[in-house]
Each structure stands twice: as structure tokens, then as C-alpha cells.
Amino acid sequence: MRRILLAAAVLALLAGCAGESPPTREATATTGTTTTEDTGFPEEGLPTTTKPPTGRHKVGDTITLESTDTGQQVTRVLVARVKFAGGDEYNTPERGLFLGVYVKVKALADDQSSLWGDFYVTMRGHHYDADACCPDGFKPTLDYVDLQDGETAEGWLLFDVPARHGEVVLKQSYGGGKIATWRF
Q1: Residue 9: in which H helix or E strand, if any?
Q2: What's 117's DSSP letter?
Q3: Which domains occur in the chain, in start order?
Q4: Which of 80, 45, 51 is nearest to 63 (CA)?
Q5: What is the pTM of this model?
Q6: pLDDT confidence bin for 176, thresholds 50/70/90
């Protein structure tokens, strides 16, 4: 509970220092309880519970984000799976492995985004952005799109990483603080 209060205080302080309120798509973690709401994602067999974004999650956990302005639930995010590849003769990772992270995003309000640029991976104390390109087996890619209430976006983000264990991090668009993490 102290972590939640501390996170809320830091976000309030950052918003106050900026001199303007963040855009609607800026979101913080929902601190509510687990629900049995349908995730709204099209594939069968996906989890139908939404976990509070505070703390660390496992791949396959769905979280719900709230607007910092209104407290309204605005986006549901699922890191559905991760997959590794070593590349091929034409496309090899510089650090050793390609890591694909399959992400699904559902807008619960108008004017949200697919959160494409808001993910990164941490591993062994290092930060890796989704900037790897094009090995086979990672289609479709998660592209940046604007979403209206009820719309979804999904696809692979691709990272060049040195190991098979770490965290996928969803960060705040402005300010860069962590909203949620998924361990793999």
C-alpha cells in the first residue's frame, strides 16, 4: 500500500512540476482488485482477469490503466507471450538473441494509443529499446495507432538482447517512470 501511495505522490509531483496536465493517454496503474471482466481481445484462451498493474507480473497477465486526469479506466494491456530467435544468415542479432514480445492493447476510452513506443526491456541492469528488425516469425508487428473506445491493436515488438531472462517494462510516455513490468 505504501508503494501505491508513493507512486501516486510522485506522479502528482511530476504533473505539478510540468505546469500542465498530461494528455489523456498518459496513464497510471489501476490499484483496484482483480476483476472477472472480459478482456475483449479476439483470441480464445486468453486470461479473462485484469490484475492491478502495481508490482511485477508474469507474461500472460492483463493490466488496466487509468487516466491521471480523471481516474477513468482508459486502456487494457496484455503482454501475451515472449519468443526468442537466433536470426538467420541475413539477419543476426548483435547481442545474441532476438526477443519478440507479443502485446495486445484495448482502448476503454477514446483517444488512446497502441503504446508502441512505451515499452522497453531491462536485463542484467541494461535497458533495451524495441529497435531490432525483421527476422522471420515475428509478424504482425505492433504499430503506432490511435484507438477509440473498444478498438484493439496487437503485434510483436522486437528487441536485440543478450539473455533469456529479464523484464518487459511499460513506461509513462512523459517522464519515463515505470507503470508496469512483466517478468520472463
Answers
A1: helix 2-18
A2: G
A3: 2-183 (2.60.40.1240)
A4: 51
A5: 0.72
A6: confident
